[in-house]
Amino acid sequence: MGKINVARVILGGLLAGLIINISEYVLNTYVIADESSALLQRLGLPEIGTHQIGVFVTMTFVLGIVLIFLYAGLRPRFGAGARTAVIAALTIWIVAFMGALADEVIGLTPAKLLGVAGIWGLVETIVAAIAGAWVYKESA
Cα angle at 134 between 129 and 137, to 5 degrees? Predict the structure, then answer.
């Protein structure tokens, strides 16, 4: 079993993070902007600003790197390719969705908003994982 190629994990992870960041921009700017704004208003919170956006973008690039690291770790057991990338994506998405689901259960997030964002997130995570896995190659 070869060692994980850290440089390729970072490169693939940055690509995965870029894809997720672009997708999240579209989601939050065009798809759920009104619902998100109403939720923030209901909770008495200010609109999302540039500082929060910077933090979210950074977090998403880290998430992309973790996603491809997980893919690299799964390769010896499941083999290289899209199937393993989807397994890694589903693993990451389930963990993230559990946190979001908790917000819905306690009444912070409306179910419709959670549903739209959850499905969107599943698709974007799978696409990002496949793209990042395409970049990843084992160390020689």
Answer: 115
Question: Phi, psi at residue 90, to the nearest 5°?
Answer: -60, -40
Q: What is the mean pLDDT of the chain?
A: 96
Question: Given phi > 0 = left and psi -120 to 50 = alpha, else beta, which region is 61?
Answer: alpha
What is the rounded CA–CA span in Å between residue 140 and residue 123?
32
Hunting for tokens 């759920």 — which residue is that? 32
Predicted structure pTM score: 0.94
Tens of pLDDT along 82-116?
999 999 999 999 999 999 999 999 999 999 999 99
Number of H helices, E strands in the chain: 5, 0
Residue with the two structure tokens 């390729």:
8
For the cut 70, the answer to whether the pLDDT of residue 78 exceeds it is yes
| Per-residue confidence (pLDDT) for residue 139, from 0 to 100 | 79
Separation between Cα atoms, residue 75 and residue 2, nearest integer Å: 10
Select from 72, 35, 36 the least CA-distant residue to 56. Answer: 36
Q: How far apart are CA 89 and CA 101, in angstroms?
A: 18
User: Which amino acid, 62?
Assistant: V
